[in-house]
Specification:
23 helices
Length: about 675
């Protein structure tokens, strides 16, 4: 029982109490499974909070700035920015504190577990063992990352160390932020590893992976630009202090004059009217002091403009230098400046090789299927050219390859389904094929078990226009159920002269019913039945195919259905049976017309003979001319009857073309099946 997550259902409805297992505990005492959904979700939330915290910390570097006017400048601190950054930084620290608490309540997999060979190993859920392991491993790194060091430095240390006699070197204290920045940056990597172990990837899509790596690269540019700004302000004030220490006339220079807190003092105003400190530190003049890579920040007044302008300029500077490995940096002989330029070059090289390389890999994964298809198509073209295929066959091959790519996008569906568990594979096949199979009238009356057996064995089939699925007289190897497209099905009854029948198969129809009749035979041979029709694609066709061996298995299940309705349904929707029925009806109609013609002729002949006898008995004394006339009529009627009889005999001798009756599918049960049902 893990952390009381499982509990018994309610035992009866008497009362409102519930029965729980002994391991059940309140939510604040539960031990979490490291692979559970709540831990995975927290890891995602925490990694986002880490990125936000890494973005907030460098904003402390923008607190110092240069104030004053054109003739007199001073060093100041942006109070509004200090309050805003401190608030956001405190919120981010709360997430680090929550992460420590959650790690104290999260189990772990024992590294020396005997069951680790099979499965993931034994899960340790003892709170004492979890605490001991955490204290020995990552606790101190998490604690250092959680401490509010920037708040302490900005709000307590800098104000306490600042005095009227200070040398204004307090900006260097802001670099202490980098000491905490390193463990915070380190926490992202084990956290990403945990997400990869649990889900397989950090991001689910290639675009998200590319955006994640680009975000890390922009974060590095943000840090580099903020550090450059802070060092620019420090370098600018260093020039002030250097000149100030050497200035004694007309008014001696004091370092506290460089602080904006003394900007309105009388002695500071007198000193500012006669000092040359700011003139000798202006890079636009001819000065001795070298700013190196920080000269543009002073020339363009980046150290004195508003926060938004200075931030985006510094971000652009960091992005430019990291992407160019610092090649356009012109440094002075100052050691700190040179070391900073070296760090920029190394960091740019590493980030470009790792982050940009990963981003390129993610983006290339979007087109990997397309590239594979292009390579396959190129190989196909080379093979056709090597085998010297005619242009007609080449065109048909190209159309099939193109159509297969459009239909599947290069994904091997059968390989994906084979790698899934049987139950999941059955559910997927049911979702894809059940509606199509139910549209086939032959299968619409079957139960879910038989339909699942059919769906599980269906495979996709693609055919391009004018492709022959099967020809008349060829063995039938599969039964096709059309998803989209049209097929032309025609027959000549084995090539018999004067016989032709053609129909069009549409989505929902099927072909290859000869295979079903063969499979339903109680003792069918290994020889596959011959096709009675020629089936050709009129357009691009997508269908599901049921192969002979799979259909044989399903047919054995059909025989268990004691229903004549299924047999009648098969006859009604089978195009082979429809054609035979049409020919049978035509032959019966011709026989009927022949019998009707014979009967009419017989009646006409009898009527003529009766009239002859009546004339002979009633008119014995008629004239010779009337006797000749009646004799002529009688002779003509006799000749007409004789000719008509000979014509009917010729029609009788000419037989209608007969179409062989299709084999009768055996839907009856075998003796073994009856014995099985009796049991």
């Amino acid at each position: 029982m893990v952390g009381g997550r499982n509990r018994l259902p309610e035992m009866g409805k008497a009362g409102r109490s519930k029965v729980f297992l002994q391991g059940h505990a309140p939510w604040y005492k539960r031990i979490l499974d490291p692979g559970s959904e709540i831990v995975l979700r927290w890891n995602w939330i925490f990694i986002v909070s880490c990125l936000v915290a890494l973005f907030i910390d460098p904003l402390y570097f923008y607190l110092p700035g240069v104030g004053g006017d054109v003739t007199s400048s001073c060093v100041k601190t942006d109070a509004s920015l200090r309050i805003v950054v401190t608030c956001f930084r405190t919120i981010a620290d709360i997430f680090y504190l929550l992460h420590i608490i959650i790690k104290f309540r999260t189990g772990y997999v024992a590294p020396n577990s005997a069951t680790r060979v099979f499965g993931r190993g034994e899960l340790v859920m003892d709170s004492k063992k979890i605490a001991q392991r955490y204290l020995r491993s990552d606790f101190f790194i998490d604690l250092i990352a959680t401490l509010p060091l920037p708040q302490i430095v900005i709000w307590f240390i800098i104000p306490a160390t600042r005095s009227p006699r200070t040398d204004h070197n307090n900006n260097a204290l802001a670099l202490i932020v980098l000491i905490q920045y390193i463990p915070r940056l380190y926490l992202i990597f084990p956290l990403s590893s945990q997400i990869i172990k649990a889900t397989g990837v950090v991001t689910k899509t290639a675009w998200a992976g590319a955006a994640y790596n680009l975000l890390l690269y922009m974060l590095a540019s943000h840090v580099a630009g903020a550090a450059w700004y802070l060092l620019s302000v420090d370098r600018y004030t260093s020039c002030w202090k250097k000149i100030c220490r050497k200035e004694f006339a007309p008014v001696p220079c004091n370092l506290y004059y460089l602080d904006c807190d003394t900007f309105g003092h009388n002695d500071r105003t007198i000193w500012a009217n006669g000092t040359d400190v700011f003139k000798n530190c202006d890079p636009r003049n001819d000065i001795v002091f070298q700013y190196g890579i920080f000269e543009s920040a002073v020339k363009k007044n980046v150290v004195s403009i508003g926060f938004v302008e200075k931030y985006f300029y510094c971000l652009w500077w960091g992005l430019q230098q990291l992407s160019s490995y610092g090649q356009n940096l012109s440094t002075s002989l100052f050691i700190g400046e040179t070391l900073f330029a070296i760090l920029i070059a190394i960091l740019g090289l590493v980030l470009f090789a790792h982050l940009i390389g990963n981003m390129q890999t993610y983006l290339q994964s979007l087109t990997v299927r397309l590239e594979e298809w292009r390579v396959k198509r190129r190989d196909t073209e080379e093979w056709m050219r090597h085998r010297q295929l005619p242009e007609d066959l080449k065109h048909r091959v190209r159309r099939f390859v193109q159509y297969k790519w459009l239909a599947t996008r290069g994904v091997n569906e059968e390989a994906i389904l084979r790698g899934l568990p049987a139950d999941l594979r059955r559910d997927i096949q049911r979702h894809l094929c059940l509606d199509l199979v139910r549209r086939v009238p032959l299968f619409s009356q079957m139960d879910d078990q038989l339909l699942d057996a059919i769906c599980e064995r269906l495979v996709s089939s693609l055919s391009t226009e004018r492709t022959y699925i099967v020809r008349e007289g060829d063995p039938v190897t599969e039964m096709l159920f059309i998803i989209r497209g049209r097929l032309d099905s025609c027959t000549t009854n084995g090539g018999r002269t004067g016989f032709f029948n053609s129909i069009v198969l549409r989505p929902g129809d099927f072909c290859g019913e000869e295979l079903l009749a063969w499979a339903l035979l109680p003792k069918s041979t290994m020889n596959l039945p011959c096709s009675t029709r020629t089936v050709r694609a009129l357009a691009e066709v997508e269908a599901f195919a049921l192969h002979a061996e799979d259909l044989k298995f399903v047919a054995n299940q059909f025989r268990r259905l004691h229903s004549k309705k299924l047999q009648h349904t098969f006859r009604f929707y089978s195009h082979h049976w429809r054609t035979w029925a049409a020919c049978f009806i035509q032959a019966a109609w011709h026989r009927y017309k022949r019998r009707m013609m014979e009967n009419n002729l017989t009646m006409a002949e009898s009527s003529a003979l009766d009239e002859k006898e009546d004339d002979e008995s009633g008119q014995a004394v008629s004239s010779s001319s009337r006797a000749k006339l009646n004799l002529g009529v009688t002779i003509l009627a006799s000749r007409f009857a004789a000719n008509t009889r000979r014509g009917a005999q010729k029609i009788k001798d000419v037989e209608m073309p007969k179409l062989q009756k299709p084999e009768e599918p055996d839907f009856s049960t075998e003796p073994d099946d009856d014995r099985l049902f009796a049991l």
